Fold this sequence. Notes:
By secondary structure, this protein is α/β, with parallel strands linked by helices. The chain has two domains: about 5-125, Response regulator (Rossmann fold), CATH 3.40.50.2300; about 130-225, Arc Repressor Mutant, subunit A (Orthogonal Bundle). Helix content is about 40%, strand content about 20%. The chain is built from eight helices and twelve strands. It has helices at about 10-25, 35-45, 60-65, 85-90, 105-130, 160-170, 180-185, 195-210; strands at about 5, 25-30, 50, 75-80, 95-100, 135, 140-145, 150, 155, 175-180, 215-220, 225. Strand 11 and strand 12 form a beta hairpin. Helix 1 (about 10-25) crosses helix 5 (about 105-130). The radius of gyration is 18 Å and the shape is globular. The N and C termini lie far apart (about 40 Å).
Amino acid sequence: MARILICDDEEGLxxxxxxxxxxxxxxxxxxxxGMEAVELCRNNTFDLIIMDIMMPRxxxxxxLKEIRKTSEVPVIMLSARGxxxxxxxxxxxxxxxxxxxxxxxxxxxxxxxxxxxxxEKNGSANSQDDGHVIYEKDGLKxxxxxxxxxxxxAEVDMAPKEYDLLFYLIRNRNIAVAREKIxxxxxxxxxxxxxxxxxxxxxxxxxxxGSYAHFIKTLRGLGYRFDG
Length: 228
């Protein structure tokens, strides 16, 4: 069971999501706008947040910026079909997934389940490992236990999904990995969202790696390979 915050100014939509989430055994709290969501996060701990982008008083991106000052809780963003938003901003803030309205409640529950399983898997793997799993090559050092990345001795701050993507590529280094497999493994299920999601995250990851971005090779028509 997870504790979920549903933040949307549409009361009817919150009610629908809440009904399905409760049916799955989750605990649910609600917020009608970004300001209320920020306040709830200051006084409560959540396992996942479902956040609309366009809301009165404080939009979803601005609310997430405030929440990220104290929490790395996974976030699913909701957006209306046809709305033009820069997803890069959301991904840099650590958005785990986007769902476009109108959406299937079953699809949303699948995405929620996938994120929660991934978080649980990462947590259990770290807690059972007495030593740190570290990858080093040239000036790149990646501590996969502590979730830390160093470029020429300086620590680099990354979005949560960038860490997951980098760790997956390193664990499969020198192997050509298909796009579909990366999406399934890193995002947690057979991803059927925006195909540009992986490209956007890969672009952000390469930017974070700086002069070591060349370790990640693009394989046209197939996927990617981490050479190391």
